[in-house]
Amino acid sequence: xxxxxxxxxxxxxxxxxxxxxxxxxxxxxxxxxxxxxxxxxxxxxxxxxxxxxxxxxxxxxxxxxxxxxxxxxxxxxxxxxxxxxxxxxxxxxxxxxxxxxxxxxxxxxxxxxxxxxxxxxxxxxxxxxxxxxxxxxxxxxxxxxxxxxxxxxxxxxxxxxxxxxxxxxxxxxxxxxxxxxxxxxxxxxxxxxxxxxxxxxxxxxxxxxxxxxxxxxxxxxxxxxxxxxxxxxxxxxxxxxxxxxxxxxxxxxxxxxxxxxxxxxxxxxxxxxxxxxxxxxxxxxxxxxxxxxxxxxxxxxxxxxxxxxxxxxxxxxxxxxxxxxxxxxxxxxxxx
Length: 336
Ligand code: BT5
What we know:
elongated, binds biotinyl-5-AMP, 5-stranded antiparallel beta sheet
């Protein structure tokens, strides 16, 4: 958004529900009345409802449901996570965008999009990201950790998302090891952590987070495995009939929670994070199928260790630590 449009938006927001005179706006922006009119129209095209009246000026009536920084910022309590904000209406993949950020980009930058046309899951799978219905975003981080430790950030992000869903929407969500957030047996969020590193040093880590917020339906192949916060809220709080779930408050809550946890992580508090992930785990105590190249095996998930590995007990009684990989859980996402 042009700086002047941004300034106009700030003035209108500060006085929401009241008129701001054209003269006041001209003075503060240092532009002509015609220019102000043009900027008002830019905002209207973005979905802002702005009333205008001769002699009175302009009044902001309603903000649109969009995730630009100005809409998210009032909810943001972070020092640096989300303070550099790259917003796209449409993008291929926010992870791809974040990975392409120049090396001098400050830690904590985020890339947010209303829609992804080539959203990605793990191992080349697709992530369905329809316009305006979810939160599709990527965090750009530069932690001083080894490349082997990078997958731990998936757990940090998963806990941040689960906590944010609880505090912003009031729904309890579970974590399916390592990267899915689950409500009532269905996936509401997926996390994709990607690493750029030398053999022994991390350059940057991109943590991609996709949350289904206001989707009302899913494409054929996803119907039985995916859900959204709106769908779940309607199920559990049928009286709360107040339209869509507030994406901007939720987005900010994810970033607020993430920063708190990330600071702890950098100080070495990962075991505490895992302890809290375990409390929300829908994997531990369940029969699982561990998928491996060229096969897999059935086991019982018994624990998550201090590195974030899933400990499974095999049928012969031996235990194995699954560091990264694909695990399906009986009773979750249709594995029976
Ligand atoms: C994931 O992969 O769950 C990671 C998803 C990460 C998405 C975010 S959005 C912002 C950022 N930019 C990106 O391009 N990606 C990240 P995985 O565990 O591999 O799961 C992928 C599988 O989830 C697919 O094969 C589908 O079965 C299912 N799926 C696809 N879209 C979904 C959706 N919207 N909701 C629930 N499940 C979905």
